[in-house]
Design goal:
Layout: E1 2-4, E2 24-26, E3 47-49, E4 70-72, E5 93-95, H1 106-109, H2 113-122
Parallel strand pairs: 1-2, 2-3, 3-4, 4-5
C-alpha cells in the first residue's frame, strides 16, 4: 500500500503507525513541520518522500526503517540529520538537497549514507544513536 496526499497539515498523523504494511509514504508539498517518532514503526516502508515541506528535524527512529530504499527530504528546513541515519543500509538513496544542513554538512549529506557514516566517524561523533554535537557547542563543568 502507498499513501500519497496533498493537504496543508502541520504534522504527519500518528495513526499512520497503525499501517504496518505501508510500503510508500509520499507527502510532498504538504506544509508539514514535523515527523513523528512513530514513523519508525513502519517497518515495511520502502519509500519515504517528504520533499518541499517545512520540516526542521527528522526523528532518530528513521533508522528503524529496515526496508527503506529511498528517503527524500529535499527542500525542507533541516539543519541537522539524526546521527542514527548512518545506521541505514548504504544502498538507501538519501536525498537531502536544498536544506540548510550544518551537521552533517550539506556537501556530505549530498553524497549519501556512506559519506555521512564516514564523516561521523572521523569527526568524533557517535554514529550509533547519539545526537550529533557541533564542535562549537560547549558544556559547562
Amino acid at each position: 500500500a502507498v499513501v500519497s496526499t496533498q493537504s496543508t497539515g502541520e504534522a504527519i498523523p500518528d495513526s499512520l503507525a497503525e499501517l504496518p504494511n505501508l510500503a510508500g509514504l509520499l507527502l510532498d508539498g504538504n506544509a508539514l513541520t514535523e515527523v513523528p517518532p512513530s514513523i519508525g514503526n513502519l517497518r515495511h516502508l520502502r519509500v519515504l518522500s517528504l520533499r518541499n515541506n517545512y520540516i526542521e528535524t527528522i526523528p532518530e527512529s528513521v533508522s528503524l526503517l529496515v526496508n527503506i530504499e529511498l528517503v527524500d527530504v529535499c527542500q525542507n528546513r533541516l539543519t541537522r540529520l539524526p546521527s542514527t541515519i548512518s545506521q541505514l543500509s548504504e544502498k538507501v538513496q538519501l536525498r537531502a538537497q536544498d536544506n540548510q544542513l550544518e551537521l552533517p554538512p550539506q556537501h556530505v549529506a549530498d553524497k549519501g549514507i556512506v559519506s555521512i557514516r564516514a564523516f561521523l566517524q572521523t569527526s568524533g561523533n557517535d554514529p550509533d544513536g547519539q545526537s550529533i554535537q557541533s564542535e562549537f557547542e560547549t558544556t559547562d563543568i
